[in-house]
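Contributing new records

If you add data, match the layout below exactly. Sequence lines come first and carry their own label; structure lines follow with theirs. Keep one chain per record. Anything else will be rejected by the validation script.
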Amino acid sequence: MAGCATAPRADYARSPADPVVESPTPVLSETVVSAEAILAPPPEHAPITPAIPVPAAPPVTNPPPVVTRNMPPVAVPIVEAWVPLAKWCGAKGLSGLTRQTGTPHPTYQIQLPQGLLVLHVGSLHATFNGVQIRLGFAPQMIGGQPFVHSLDLAKTVEPLQHLSDIPAGFGGAVILLDPGHGGPDAGAASVLRGHSEKDFALDWALRLRSLLVAQGWQVHLTRTNDVEVPVAVRAQMAESLRASLFVSLHLNSAGVNRTESGVETYCLTPARMPSSLTRGYPDDLRASFPNNLFDAQNLQLAVRVHRALTSIPGTTDRGVRRARFLGVLRPQQRPAILVEGGYLSQPAEARLIATTAHRQKLAEAVARGIGTPRQQIAEIPH
């Protein structure tokens, strides 16, 4: 179980101002994957069966258009199908597809322009330059060849293919930091008595603000003291400020489980894709939200920040994940992520988080991942 607490929190639930757009594309029942299946470790010996029928010649989808200041984001229809990985690589001019292990669950590596992507047949766990990323659908072995779902190609692999170490500027230098919880909503309770998520998240955000200002950002916070800020207000602040980025900072809890530890970075689940985590909330694959217009940029930002966080010595990598229930992300009309900086339910990690030195390391890592305004991934229309 992951998330700020084992029960649903107010800043996760959908707010009345949070619009939902129903996708006209019908949902295939076979694509629904349970949270338990997604969180399970890669299978070792289970047989693999295609999740949905495979057409004789499945199409290779084109990437969505790049979002620029003068061109509003446009939702591009994606044909849901299983695509031969070798055929897709050939269409994209990628010659670095190699098979690493044998049957029954082979591992394939793809050399992308910015790094190495590793896919495991039958597993939702992938890695990019060593960083864990959760897929929406487990790759399948069909007719002796690896197939990947077109949604994962369009929403995961394509953004990674175009991830750049020195990308174009955002056309804006305003960032809104969101320290999770506040006021009567304390968030996750630490196993160390007297400590709670809301206090650590605020201290983390204040430290991060100073670093980002030094990197050239105009930084605002959704709260600067111990007050409760409704989800709808956090979203309205981002709109009022015309923020270029939205980053929500949280600490995790697994309840009575004292073994879970590590960092997770979340972005919104693309339409028609199962979430990596639901925490008991409905996961309607037909739903589309304003922030889904930035699916590619969300993932790129999440990967950059998560890679920096996992570079902290001793940090456990729990992956870049997607969730649909995160109310602070859904209405955002800009790239937006939510970072879980460690588990307050794990004694050793809780002791680390309680130190100013570690919270400073968390702040420095997120600042590194965000970079300067010039080092962002795409322009946001204003």
